[in-house]
Amino acid sequence: MNEREYWFARRYPLGDRRQAYAPVHWKGYAVSLVFVAALTGGGVAFAYLGAKDDFFMGLAVFVGVTIVAGAWFILTAKANGDPVRTVAEYQKDKGQRV
């Protein structure tokens, strides 16, 4: 039986009320990079449209990009995140395999 490949892992152990995830695989880092690039693009569009005296259109574009990118990032991290193991455990395992 194949072991599932997780892109993200919990930052804090089970039982902790914090639910943060962090990338542990190159695909997780790629997802994070696309998220940051989308927000940067939305910010650039907001600045450009604001400079062209179309502030509300720029704001609408930025808010739209933020909502879509944020939802996509959260859903991707949850769908491809390890619900049990932490980032520290992945780092420990990686050190043992080398």
List the helices and strands and how they pair.
Blueprint: E1 8-10, E2 21-23, H1 26-51, H2 55-79, E3 81-86, H3 87-97
Parallel strand pairs: 1-3
Antiparallel strand pairs: 1-2
Helix pairs in contact: 1-2
Count of DSSP-assigned helices: 3
The helix content, as a percent range, equals: 55-70%
Overall shape: it is: elongated
How can the largest sheet be summarized?
Answer: 3 strands, mixed
Structural notes for this entry:
- It is a single chain.
- The protein is an alpha+beta fold.
- Helices cover 63% and strands 12% of the residues.
- The protein has a three-stranded mixed beta sheet with strand order 2-1-3.
- The longest helix has 26 residues, at 26-51.
- The model has no long low-confidence stretch (mean pLDDT 91).
Summarize it.
The protein is α+β, with helices and mostly antiparallel strands.
Salient structural properties:
3 helices, 3 strands, three-stranded mixed beta sheet, about 100 residues
